[in-house]
Design brief:
By secondary structure, the protein is α/β, with parallel strands linked by helices. The protein folds into 2 domains: 2-154, Alpha/beta knot; 176-226, tRNA(m1g37)methyltransferase, domain 2 (Trp Operon Repressor, Chain A, Orthogonal Bundle). It is built from 9 helices and 9 strands. The protein has a 5-stranded parallel β-sheet, sandwiched between helices. The chain has a two-stranded antiparallel sheet with strand order 3-4. Strand 5, helix 4 and strand 6 (106-110) form a beta-alpha-beta unit. Bound molecules: S-adenosylmethionine. The site of S-adenosylmethionine has 20 residues, from strand 5.
Length: 226
């Protein structure tokens, strides 16, 4: 799967893309991530990509021209992909949206900064607008990383163990995973539940189902040990 990130701060991705799961997925050719600097499509002596808002008000707004030019150029680099605009006013990113996005071969992730985008970018380019939650980030880069991070888990081969996808929280809407324990058996007075040490697979599965149901209640009961 291919991701093209359109951003004013491509260097922000360096650490993220060169570690752990993403690094391996890229090395193994499962995921292709390309970074494009919107400023490369800016015109004029100062290479400006933003300007003051008409009507007044604080901050700067990203101008339409460099964004249109960048999107056109990136779309021509291979088979066109689906354009996604990172915006706090967009559709909320949920696990089912993640699953939908993972069915695309290529996503272009457009990251805003400052006060956001000139409205004509939304009107003319008709992106799918995605928000990672009802709060404001400084830019679209972290939200774009969240999209990449969640979507790549569905790319075959990235996780290695696809079972962990179906067992995980939110795989079914509202369903949370059961509690997990590892060594040591006792830690600061807290013991691993006996059933997990029993070797009885049916009993373990039943305990996990029950714990998962309990955790998934709308107002969760206090968790074991609390
Ligand atoms: C400081 S924000 C601009 C917020 C804008 N003035 C508003 O009130 O909606 C700059 C950029 O960060 C990104 N951004 C901020 N919060 C986001 C969120 N919750 N989800 C997705 N993108 C977000 C968007 O790309 C946005 O254009």
């Amino acid at each position: 799967m291919r991701f093209d990130v359109l951003t004013l701060f491509p260097d922000l991705f360096q650490g993220y893309l060169t570690q752990s799961l993403l690094k391996l997925a890229i090395q193994r050719g499962l995921v292709d991530i390309r970074l494009w600097n919107l400023r490369d499509w800016a015109k004029g002596k100062h290479k400006s990509v933003d300007d003051r808002p008409f009507g007044g008000g604080p901050g700067m707004v990203i101008m339409p021209e460099p964004v249109y030019d960048c999107v056109d150029a990136v779309q021509q680099d291979g088979e066109p992909g689906r354009l996604i605009m990172m915006t706090p006013g967009g559709e909320r990113l949920t696990q089912s949206v993640v699953q939908e996005l993972s069915k695309q071969k290529r996503l272009l992730l457009l990251c805003g900064r400052y006060e956001g985008f000139d409205e004509r970018i939304r009107l003319g380019l008709k992106p799918r607008e995605i928000s990672i939650g009802d709060f404001i980030c400084n830019g679209g880069e972290v939200p774009a990383m969240v999209v990449i991070d969640t979507v790549v888990r569905y790319v075959p081969g990235v996780l290695g163990d696809e079972e962990s996808l179906t067992e995980e929280s939110h795989n079914e809407p509202g369903r949370l995973e059961y509690p997990q324990y590892t060594r040591p058996r006792a830690f600061r007075g807290m013991e691993v539940p006996e059933v997990l040490l029993s070797g009885n697979h049916e009993a373990i599965a039943a305990w996990r189902r029950q714990q998962s149901e309990q955790r998934s209640q709308p107002s969760p009961a206090p968790r074991a040990g609390e």
